[in-house]
Amino acid sequence: MSIAISVPLRRSGSDTRGLMLLLAAHVVMWTAFCLLYLAPSDLQNDMTEAFSWAQEMPLGTYKHPPFYAWVVHGWFSLFPTRDWAFTLLSSVNAAIGLAAVWGIAGRYLSGPARLAAVLLLEALPFFTVQSLNFNANSVLLSLWPLVMLLFLRSFDRRDLAGAVALGLAAAAAMLSKYYSGIILLCCLAAALAHPDRRRYFSSPAPYVAVAVLAAAVAPHVLWHLHAAIGPMQYMASKGSSKPLEILGKAAVFVAGCAALHALLGAALAWLWRRGRTAPPENRPAMPSAGDRRALVIFALGPFLLTVLIALIFSVRINTHFAIPIFSLSPLAAIAWLGLAIDRAALRRLALLAGIGGLLLLAMAPFAGAWTLRHDIEHAAEPRRLVAERVTALWRQRVGTKLAIVAGTESYALGATFYSPDHPTDFTAFAPAYAPWIDADRLRRGGLAVICLKDDDWCLGEAAKYQGLDTWRTEFSLAKRVGGVTGRPFDFVVVFVKPGQTLPLQPIHLRPF
Length: 512
Description:
512 residues; alpha/beta
């Protein structure tokens, strides 16, 4: 992956000003790249799924805890329901994580080295291309660094406000994905490993933080106890009883993480060669014993715990799990290697980043057209077109707003975002997956079932509405963007008109 950020750095500018320029450049660059590259594509399922949940503001979902869906709800109460607004949210989320890393880096570095610890994160795809799909993994790009930063501050100050802030941040992380328990374990390990641990644990701070965390997650826990299907069951479905498969997945994960650090490794090697003759006073000062131990734990702990837990509990992991765990990689490398980074080196990094960013922007439209032509990552799926067509047909035949949709996953979820009526998704035709849907809501709203013509599961579920007052139509759609036409897709749509009692239970539950 290429570094894709450019920041004008001047000796006269303050460090804080440099950070603000970097964050602004990150948001502008990656929002622009995403809009150019993904112009032929519609939003990914993770994002439309979050939007569908955001409309209901649940205490939990069958797949993940609800916090990042709440974030989406708040965001779209301020911004229009457009692709660019969702892309902007993704970029801002990553930028918040960069700002938190800056705060942590201040304990170890100063001047150009501190800013380099943030700038070099642009060499990791976790903070760039992988951050653009806003989901339960990428939201942790902001939350995990915030948890680490607030833990370090709470440990130092041991005040009530800091403890409350830490508890809330920890709750937000846990309510986004249970995987965040790893970063909380790292906080505990860092506290226990610190020479001043007795002062910390004899103060109210850690117990207030735990109490706030417990109070914040309690409604979700109570919801889970009464839910038919929740994140724990979904997590269990991702396991495997085959030891060789688990070992293979773990090995691929480790190799993938190493490969994704290749560009960062090259940048660090250049900095090391450039600064190896620098005098000791130009290198980072040796941090305290407690800070050294915390940096080791936070930089390596999430990675090691992820692999260890995967092996112990037979979890099939992939590099998506790595998105939030390497935010301190550049900082740790600079501190451990004692890299001397002056403003000239920082300007060189920024220049290279700027060149990389311009190249990416120049190539983005052509790469996007290629993805449409070859249907890479489902780029040719006409989800927006289907949502608009189904909404127009529903209004024409039924005369009301489209309230509820179901069917082939990509198109049912896409309709919740792209339809001007923003219907809710009756996930898998099952209240267990969409507990906000009951018989009364179906009777009042009716149902539009959107199926790909070759989706036998969806067509089988639609068939159970035979005998009701329904209307069936078929059509074919293909995207055309900038003179490039994607392959056509054939659809079957069944409209179940309002005012009828619909069967609630699915015939065949969709596997997840």
